[in-house]
Structure formats: structure tokens, C-alpha cells
Amino acid sequence: MNYSELFTLLAPETLLVIAALGVLFIDLTTLRGEDIATRMSWGAWLTVGACFASGVAAFMAPTATPAGYLDGMLVLSPLSPWVKAVILLLTGCTAIVSISSRFTEHAGEYFALLILATAGMLFLVSTENLLLIFVALELLSLCLYVMTAFNKRNLQSAEAALKYFLIGGISAAFLLFGFSLVYGVTSELNLAKIAPKLASATPDSLLLVGMLMVVAGFGFKVAAVPFHLWAPDAYEGAPLPSAAFIASGSKVASFFILAKLMMLGFANAGGSGAWMNFSSGWMPMLAVVAGLSVIVGNVAAIAQSSVRRLLAYSAVAHAGYALVGVLANQKSEGLASVIYYVATYAVTSVGIFAVVGAVQDRAGNDKLPAFAGLSKREPVLAFCLMIFLLSLAGIPPLAGFFGKFYLFKSGLLVQGGGPASLGMLWLVVLALAMSAVSLYYYLRVLKEVYVSVPAPDAPALEMPWAAKAVAVVLAFVVLLLGCLPGLLVNQLVAAMQVGAN
User: Fold this and answer.
1) pLDDT band for position 432 (50/70/90)?
2) pLDDT tens digit string along 85-130?
3) N vs C: which end of the chain shows fewer Cβ within 10 Å?
4) What torsion do the CA atoms of 310, 316, 317, 323 make, to the nearest 10 degrees?
5) pTM flag (> 0.90)
6) Taken in order 327, 183, 145, 113, is the CA torsion positive or negative?
7) Whose CA is closest to 140, among 104, 87, 180?
8) Which residues of 412-430 are buried (b: 16+ CB within 10 A; e: fewer)?
9) Cross-strand bridge partners of residue 306
10) Is the distance from CB of 329 to CB of 273 less than 8 angstroms?
11) Residue 432, class by beta-carbon neighbours within 10 Å (0-12 exposed, 13-18 middle, 19+ buried)?
């Protein structure tokens, strides 16, 4: 190994770190005397440029690293550029949505944290080593904690960040202790080397405890029940761009590494979560978490009057849906369905937060009545919001429908359940029933948008052109991936097949 080769492989992450320092330097020197609107605009477009350059570097980097390279600390595959491209797209959209925000005077610091969090996510995508997985997760988490608390004028922001940090610290301890137990059992940190060590016998009690702690640690990262208590406060109290980023990019990276961890490192210790066919392993643990998530998330969302809290509980439910794909324990169809689902969900979430931000800026809150008559006040945004919400509900021909279709299909044929037991049939039926429940609270929002009459003194809605363009483009992406899901799914499957060969 030489440093020039290492920098070539790490070009996307290196560019992001340089960009973070550059944005901070420019804001504190050249733009120091400018007004906040100018500084936010410069910071946002510099972030977008950095994401574009990093995306180009990701596709120009070598398609694969040699087997056992750096003991799995750096692993590139044909799938890596696609996942990185999704994350960078979400970061760029979040930066554009931030242009009109005035929640802080520290523009350079905010965008530097946004870029560093993205670098942490790219490291997550590029590793199969337990130690680096933990370090990258903590880099991402620390940035998110600070971004949640960035609005110093809002006590809700400080409260949300404190809860997020405290629960996050506990989850990090669980995750690290779980990794240490796995290392104690296998004497390996590389996921590819851990798998053969777990293939010989039934998982012992020490390994089961370790896997339980790992599930708990990642359950926090993806906001799955019962590790979701931070999510409603963080979604509601965090500055809107920060909440959009928490709901989108961090979910893509977290689910990707969770799926890789379970399907590669723990594949031989899965057991079975099929109905009446349970056996010890991580699959029954994750099946219970998934079932609780879809129930609690959808039922709790019904009672919400704040759209941001509604979206938080909706995110809990969607975490349960995505876990069905992880439970498939298949490195081809199962992983592809997870990536497709969380990518389309993340795109939809950023679009929704862009619209919610426009309404909240004018009305002063995000309660349901603030959306009354949105179709008459701003028909383009109302139409985009309808596409996003119906996609989350799984209505065809939108991207969310095909995302759930692929997930539930892979769940029915889950490895370990077998065709006779139809794998996770009980969980798929539960998820389908709760999807029908979710349609109710999404339609509550659309009822305000299209049926309710706006108040006579309702303020005119003026959304910055850049944020409006983001909402329109993302709505088009949701429609396109719904009508032509193969545009993304085929690329993901082909990339995994090439990597397997």
C-alpha cells in the first residue's frame, strides 16, 4: 500500500473534508462582513459543488479493492458509487433547502458540519471493519447532535439535541459493547472473516447478547421501536434543514451498513423469525423490532397535530418496513430492495420538509391548520406534497409503492423460512395492514391542503426559487422511479452481480 493509492481510493471522502475546511475558511475570512443571506447562499452552493465533485470522484475511483485490503477497513465495490451518489444528492438538496433559513448566524460552521456528516456516511459505505464502522457512525452522529442544537433561539432545539445526544451516547455504548463481544467470540473485525467463524455451530449465549446489543445500537440510528424516543423531538425541534438531513441521508447510510453487517458478517447466525419456526439468532430479534415499529409508528402518527412529529412517527414505521428487507438475509434481492426503498423514502422526505419549511416560515408553525387551502395559495407545492405523501403511503404508480413491493416480496421468500412457511408472511401481512392505517393520517394532511378553506388572513406563501425547484425535481424523481423503477433497481442488482463475480 502507498499513500497515493490510498488517496485515489478515498478521493470522494478527501474532497469532502477539504471542502468542509474550505467552506469554514471562506465564511470566516472573505464573507465575514456579509449579511447572513449572502453567507448562507455561498455556503449552500459551495456544498453543492463539493457534493458534485465528490460524486464524480466516486464513479471515477477503482470499481473494487483487492480482497482483504487493509483488513476490510476500506472496501469498494461496483455498488459503492451508487449508494454514495444517493447520499451526495440528498446532501446537496438539503444544502439548497437551507439557503432561505435564518436559524443561525454561523453559516460556515453549519455547512462544515453538514459536509463532515456526509463524509462520515461515505466512510460507512466504504468499510466492512467493525472498528471503522463505529468510528464513522460516531462522526456522523456527533455532527447530527450539533446540527440539531444549531437554533440557539429555540428552546425546543436545545431540548431535542440533549435527548438525541443522551440516547445516542447510550446506544453507542451498546453498539461498542456488542462489537466487543462479537470480536471476543470470533477474534475478527472484518465482516468477511467473521461470517465463516459463525457457520459451524448454533450461536452461543455470548454471541446472542452481542448481536442483541448491536441490534439495539442500530435500532437507535434508524429510529426503530423501542429505540425511537428521540425522533419526534428531534424532527420537531431541530432546524428544518437539519431535520430533513436526519430523515434522509443518515437513514440511507445507516440502513446500508446495517444490511451489510447482518447479510455479510452475521449471515450464518441469523436463525429464523418465520411464524411457528423461530430459532435463535438475530432474525427473530429484528423481526420483533420491525413488527413493533410498524405498529407503534403508524398508530402514534394518527394522534399528531404537528406535521413534523407526524413525519417522525411515520419514519419509525418506515424503519420497520425497511427491516423486512434486511430480514430477507439475501445479498442480492434483499439488499437491492432495502437500498431502493430507503433511497426513495429519503428523496421523498427531503421534498416534504422543503414544502413544510415554506409553510412554517409563513405561518409560524407546522400544525395541520397551517396547511389549509395550500392548493389555492400555492398549487405547485400542494401537488408536490400530494405526490410525496401518497408515495409514503405506497400508492401506485409512485416510487413508494414499488419500494414496498420489492421489500415485501423479498420478505416472503426470506432465507431460513423456506417456501413452505413463506418466510416472514406474518410480518408482511402486519406491514400491509399498517400501510393501510398510514393512508389515514397522510390523507388528513391532504384534506387540509385540498379541502379546507384558508383563513381570510392566511399569509401569502412565497418560497425561494431554489427550494421550490428542489421540491419540483424531487417530486419528478418520485414519479419517474414509480413509473420506471428499473432505472435504479436494475443498476443496483447489476452492480451487486458484478461485485459477486
Assistant:
1) very high
2) 999 999 999 999 988 888 888 888 999 999 999 999 999 999 989 9
3) C
4) 160
5) yes
6) negative
7) 87
8) bbbbbbeeebbbbbbbbeb
9) 367
10) no
11) middle
